[in-house]
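USER:
I would value a second opinion on how I read folds in token form. Give me a protein, with the fold worked out from its sequence. Write it directly below this note and I will take it from there.

ASSISTANT:
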Amino acid sequence: MEERYAFLAEWYDPTADLLRRYQLFFYPTDGSLEMFDVKNRRMFLRRTKYDDLHQEDLFIGNRVNVFSRQLNLIEYGDQYTSSKLGSKKERTLALIKPDAVTKIGDVLELIYSHNLIVIKAKMTKLTWSQAADFYAEYQSKPFFNNLLQFVTSGPVVAMELMGDEAISVWKSLLGPTDSAVARKEAPQSARAKFGIDVVENVGHGSDSVAAATTEIEFFFPCTVGHGPSNTAVYTDCTCCIIKPHAVSEGLTGKILNSITAAGFEISALQMFTVDRANAEEFYEVYRSVVPEYPSMVTELCSGSCVVLEIRGTDAPKTFREFCGPADPEIARHLRPTTLRALYGKDKVKNGVHCTDLPEDGVLEVQYFFKLLDP
């Protein structure tokens, strides 16, 4: 029989104000899918080739976009799918310490190259109390105070990673705790490349499934407003959104590296999953101006995006110039080193959104880092 993966998915129907459930079937042989309406017990979508959904997108808790419908994958639909796709799947916390935040692009490249997926991400600055709570197990260690002093000395980036045996894979990517030992025993590891010693050693990784659950909850709690706050400052800034297509293609690290190499400061970073209503509201200014408006909305809510607060001299103007023309083809001809020339596909999937009007820079940053992350 042809291989088929089954999931139970939910979709909120805003017109009827109902939560609808479907069985979603994915056929990896040709990338086609079909959907069955659970309540009405009828075929909702006959088997159709759909190039925008990939096997790596199929895991419990993910939100996928199918013909402009945002579906939440809530359960495996059968035992075969569970054993085939879910048996080795783990989640782990990856904490990037202050010494490596400027290397976040390189770290992400390492993560993507080993088939780990970033589910959540947030730049934050820990208080002494928060750091002491997080590292409570090391309280009796001689380096405890030095660790707290260091980890509170600047911003950190917390990420929830998911993948096959993610806990051990991430620990292996980090390398031995002591950066000097890492340089001898694991020269390709992150600590070997970017670490200094046993404290300034790039990052932290969860030791077990139980620890991962606790540590992920620490940075990304279910209760709104209870986790460490973001680092947005809302002055002399502009907004950049790494669009969902670029995130799913594993381009986030490359884009971040390009931004920092150009001399811009990334003063806040966070991953968001935007619903259609918020996407329409955010892009409202383009509604009657840009013919691509409906497609822009669909793209923004098609998956996770990474939102940045960018700071620099005359940031809205200079960063907009660095992004290049909205059409990547034009950008490649006229300004081949710009972000859209390097990472864009077309006028909608053009790599990044940037603030167009200087007066809207702070407003767009506030929309995400104040309104959507209260």
